[in-house]
């Protein structure tokens, strides 16, 4: 009986040690993931939180695709859970702040976002935080005596709920295009003045717009440490109206055959008809020769 | 020389042992080409050395060669006829049958180059006059038709002689009767026939110039190093006349030897044709200097790779051989009276024809391997072009096919017009009497 107890104890010890070792091995195999959060807001609307995930492999950071990142607003609680983002091939993802957070967002002067990776098979648990001071850009576009100007004013929300000008902040005045922003003015960047937090610059650019000349002109604070990325943009008829190229539907050398240029239809066809007319005449001459031969035979 | 002697000398003869072996070799080469073509249809153009960059290889070179050599029909028959060159008579039919057979195979080889020959009909159903390829289709069809008529009308006067001298009731006599029993040799028939020949002589010259100019435009209208030239039409036409004249000299020698035609194709013909070859070779050399010296003087970046590949690179041996052996050596040799004797003229004619074939290859392929945008991340086979044995077999098969048509033609019809020769002999007799 004593021997059996000893054997049972030994088996329990082996099993216990195996489990501990297996767990330890599992933990050592998991890699470390780095999570980055970025804040982006357009026209004072609810923000978009951009995430990117990277891991270090052979002294290099590489993007991590297909990992779920949980995003929270203000606190890592069920109430603060905004959603889950799955990263793409470049290790990036984004999430627009859900509408249910709007009132909380509108009244908060300081915003905190938390990103976490938990219960991942490949990576250890990880979390990161992003703190943003809430700010906005007020954009004014005017045209006086044919001089077009862009005015931008940067304001930050104070704890007392008042908006206060933000001085000495770098801002870009841009024309928004499909893939990136073009500098709309002489300087690439401007700094808001120390009193009103404002910048102004003339718009002298010639940019193709839509068929009515509409373009999107904006002001942008780009990846600011305090305020994140803020963009204010407006559609204005300052572009050159785009005249659609209908040359494919007109007669041209590169059009379909029913749109052959008239000169290319007329002259070659005159030549072709003339030459083939003569060829048919020559063939007709052969028939005449046959007829003459038959007549001669009958005589 | 009596009419009977002329008829006996010039009537088509049955193949001897050499003729049979020659025909059998040509048939075998054609069958081998056909076998490879069936293989190409089955497995696609992958069986060739053609890839993304060199998408035009020896098929297109061969096509340009065929179109070029076909111009001989207009040179000898039409230009010589209109300019009153009296010694042309024994050469007219030789040049016309070369023209017809070459242009026929030009149109066939272009189909061979198509990856999907089953879509050939799309060319007509979806044709666009804006495309130079369509211009080529039109002009080749026209030239082929005119060349056949140009061969047929002067042949009519020989048909009664052929019917009379063939075995009564034989298949060959029936064939002769089918194509020309109606020819009775009346004054009215001669008048119609002569007018038709005159009309074709005038018409075929611009058509012949057009056929090769349009072929040159297939290249010149494409913006690529080596092809981007306003000179290309004249360059191609001059080269075509040269290869055509060289081809006639070769054919003259072969027919003279094979059918003992020394009394008809004389040293005078070799002497005169050699002079024509010299003139055309100098003209073609002039265009070559224009085509290569001027771009080489500027050496634009985009042209550099192409020109270096020709002058000192992978095509240099071929390039300098084509220039020196295909043009310069014939000019030097044929300048001397001894060089214009039948045998040396024949060798020079061969050099001209072979050089011309490789010259077409040099026009087509090196350009394709020198694209404006550098080649990156492509398999090694894309950077070079080496024709496969299937390609060579098809190409050789097409060349053999051309020779086979000419061979069969000479078996059926007199290669020197009998009636015209008799007429010339009869006309020259009173002149001799008068002179005496």
Would you mind describing this structure in some detail?
The complex is a heterodimer of chains A (299) and B (436). Chain A has 299 residues and is an alpha+beta fold. Among the domains of chain A are: 101 residues, Immunoglobulin-like; 102 residues, Immunoglobulin-like, CATH 2.60.40. In chain A, the strands form 3 sheets. In chain A, strands 1, 2, 3, 6, 12, 13, 14, 16 and 17 form a 9-stranded mixed sheet that branches. Chain A has a 4-stranded antiparallel sheet with strand order 5-4-7-8, with no helix packed on it. In chain A, strand 10 and strand 11 form a beta hairpin. In chain A, 22% of the residues are buried. Chain B has 17 helices and no strands. Chain B folds into 2 domains: 255 residues, no CATH class; 147 residues. Chain B is globular and about 70 Å long. Chains A and B meet through helix 3 of A and helix 7 and helix 10 of B. Chain A: This is DUF916 domain-containing protein. Chain A: It comes from Solitalea agri. Chain A: Keywords: Membrane, Signal, Transmembrane, Transmembrane helix. Chain B: It comes from Solitalea agri. Chain B: It holds the Pfam family NrfD.
In brief, what are we looking at here?
The complex is a heterodimer of chains A (299) and B (436). By secondary structure, chain A is an alpha+beta fold.
User: How many beta-strand segments of chain B?
Assistant: 0
How many helical elements of chain A? 3
What's the alpha carbon Rg of chain A, rounded to whole Å? 37 Å
Helix/strand structural class of chain A: alpha+beta
Parts with pLDDT < 50 across at least 5 consecutive residues of chain B:
432-436
The CATH architecture of one domain in chain A can be named as Sandwich
- What is the number of beta strands of chain A? 17
**Main sheet overview of chain A:** 9 strands, mixed
Tell me the fraction of residues in β-strands of chain B, as a range: under 5%
- The global form of chain A is flat
Mean pLDDT figure of chain B: 92
SSE arrangement of chain B, N to C: HHHHHHHHHHHHHHHHH
Question: Which chains have the largest interface?
Answer: A-B, 27 and 28 residues
Number of domains of chain B: 2
């Amino acid at each position: 009986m004593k021997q059996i107890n000893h054997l049972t104890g030994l088996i329990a010890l082996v099993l216990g040690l195996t489990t501990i070792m297996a767990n330890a091995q599992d933990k050592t195999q998991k890699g470390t993931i780095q999570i980055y959060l970025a804040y982006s807001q357009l026209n004072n609307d609810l923000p978009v939180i951009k995430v990117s995930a990277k891991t270090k492999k052979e002294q290099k950071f590489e993007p991590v695709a297909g990992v779920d990142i949980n995003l929270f607003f203000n606190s890592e609680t069920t109430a603060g859970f905004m959603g889950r983002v799955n990263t793409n091939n470049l290790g990036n993802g984004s999430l627009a702040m859900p509408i249910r957070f709007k009132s909380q967002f509108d009244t908060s002067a300081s915003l905190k976002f938390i990103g976490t990776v938990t219960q991942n098979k490949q990576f250890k648990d990880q979390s990161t935080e992003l703190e943003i001071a809430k700010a906005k850009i007020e954009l004014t576009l005017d045209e006086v005596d044919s001089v077009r100007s862009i005015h931008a004013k940067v304001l930050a929300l104070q704890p007392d709920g008042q908006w206060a000008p933000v001085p000495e902040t770098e801002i870009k005045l841009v024309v928004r295009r499909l893939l990136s922003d073009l500098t709309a003015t002489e300087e690439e960047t401007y700094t808001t003045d120390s009193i009103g937090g404002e910048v102004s610059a003339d718009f002298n650019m010639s940019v193709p717009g839509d068929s009515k000349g509409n373009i999107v002109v904006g002001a942008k604070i780009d990846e600011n440490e305090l305020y994140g990325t803020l963009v204010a943009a407006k559609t204005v008829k300052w572009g050159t109206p785009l005249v659609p190229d209908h040359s494919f539907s007109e007669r041209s050398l590169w059009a379909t055959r029913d749109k052959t240029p008239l000169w290319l239809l007329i002259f070659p066809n005159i030549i072709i008809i003339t030459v083939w007319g003569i060829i048919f005449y020559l063939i007709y001459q052969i028939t005449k020769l046959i007829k003459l031969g038959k007549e001669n035979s009958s005589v | 020389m009596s009419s009977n002697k002329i008829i006996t000398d010039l009537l088509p003869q049955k193949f001897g042992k050499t003729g049979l072996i020659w025909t059998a070799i040509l048939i075998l080469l054609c069958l081998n080409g056909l076998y490879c073509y069936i293989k190409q249809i089955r497995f696609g153009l992958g069986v060739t050395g053609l890839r993304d960059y060199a998408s035009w290889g020896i098929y297109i070179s061969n096509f340009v060669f065929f179109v070029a050599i076909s111009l001989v029909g207009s040179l000898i028959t039409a230009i010589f006829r209109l300019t009153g060159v009296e010694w042309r008579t024994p050469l007219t039919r030789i040049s016309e049958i070369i023209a017809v057979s070459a242009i026929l195979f030009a149109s066939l080889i272009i189909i061979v180059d198509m990856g999907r020959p089953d879509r050939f009909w799309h060319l007509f159903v979806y044709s666009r006059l804006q495309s130079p390829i369509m211009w080529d289709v039109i002009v080749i069809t026209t030239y082929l038709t005119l060349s056949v008529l140009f061969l047929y009308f002067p042949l009519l006067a020989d048909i009664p002689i052929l019917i009379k001298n063939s075995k009564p009731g034989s298949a060959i006599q029936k064939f002769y009767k089918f194509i020309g029993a109606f020819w009775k040799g009346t004054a009215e028939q001669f008048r119609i026939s002569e007018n038709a020949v005159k009309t074709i002589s005038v018409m075929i010259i611009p058509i012949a110039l057009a056929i090769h100019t349009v072929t040159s435009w297939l290249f010149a209208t494409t913006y690529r190093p080596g092809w981007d030239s306003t000179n290309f039409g004249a360059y191609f036409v001059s080269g075509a006349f040269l290869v055509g004249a060289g081809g006639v000299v070769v054919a003259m020698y072969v027919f003279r030897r094979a059918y003992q035609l020394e009394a008809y194709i004389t040293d005078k013909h070799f002497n005169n044709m050699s002079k024509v070859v010299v003139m055309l070779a100098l003209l073609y050399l002039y265009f070559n200097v224009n085509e290569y010296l001027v771009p080489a003087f500027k050496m634009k970046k985009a042209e550099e790779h192409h020109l270096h590949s020709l002058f000192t690179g992978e095509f240099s041996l071929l390039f300098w051989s084509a220039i020196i052996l295909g043009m310069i050596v014939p000019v030097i040799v044929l300048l001397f009276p001894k060089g214009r004797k039948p045998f040396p003229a024949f060798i020079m004619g061969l050099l001209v024809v072979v050089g011309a074939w490789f010259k077409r290859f040099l026009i087509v392929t090196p350009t394709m391997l020198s694209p404006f945008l550098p080649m990156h991340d492509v398999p090694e086979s894309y950077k070079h072009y080496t024709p496969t044995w299937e390609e060579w077999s098809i190409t050789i098969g097409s060349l053999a096919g051309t020779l086979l048509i000419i061979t069969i033609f000479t078996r059926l019809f007199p290669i020197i017009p009998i009636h015209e020769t008799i007429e010339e002999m009869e006309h020259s007799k009173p002149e001799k009497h008068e002179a005496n």
